[in-house]
């Protein structure tokens, strides 16, 4: 069970305790709140996340309005592990990029795996611009593209800081998926080649045709050995328990064994770049 699910189940247990202390059945509570009985069950069993208003209403109907603050504290703890993009990006992508600064500053060892795109630390300005445009459309958030790109470029400065190591793995599809016009993609792949050669980070590229014992289903970032960030379609998951982190560390080690590095990695990236360089495909953003 992940940190997030553990926290949600714990909150559900407390809700059930309050209802029991009030002498209410689930159906009675639902009726007083004008909810479907299934909502009460889902909240109590950790299958649905309560809103702030849900918790205040629950405490009030149970005759314990003072218990709301404790419930809200549990909700805030839960939200440290699961944060929807809509909420995180309410102020735009720029502030969100800068919010990583404290974590970046204290992390000494970064392990990054991306399956579908080039990670932000290696992105060109134009590639990042198209990435943020997609985020604005998908999550319907403020369009602060210039600020967001500037913040991402500034974040890349951590690659030059002493005392930090970076191990980055790219699955070949991350290089081939056209997330911008071919000219942007070719420039981005040239940047990847440059970074492999510069060796500021150890960059490995995993060929699509290689045999693997693991399934690289999604990207993830491991910060030292105490935190993993996973981006889903709707939210960012933050995992901090050892039992949740360990599988990602093992996954990274397995994927790393399949990666090409140095000249072999450069040859693969250049082959992809040549494939793209001959095309004239329009940007998906301009269709």
From TrEMBL:
GO molecular function: DNA binding
PROSITE patterns, per the entry: HTH_CROC1
Residue ranges of every copy of the HTH cro/C1-type domain listed in the record: 15-71
Domain of life: Bacteria
Short name of any one Pfam family annotated for the protein: DUF5753
InterPro entries (UniProt xref): Cro/C1-type_HTH, DUF5753, Lambda_DNA-bd_dom_sf
Gene3D superfamilies from the UniProt entry: lambda repressor-like DNA-binding domains (1.10.260.40)
Protein name, per record: Transcriptional regulator with XRE-family HTH domain
Biological classification of the source: Bacteria, Bacillati, Actinomycetota, Actinomycetes, Streptosporangiales
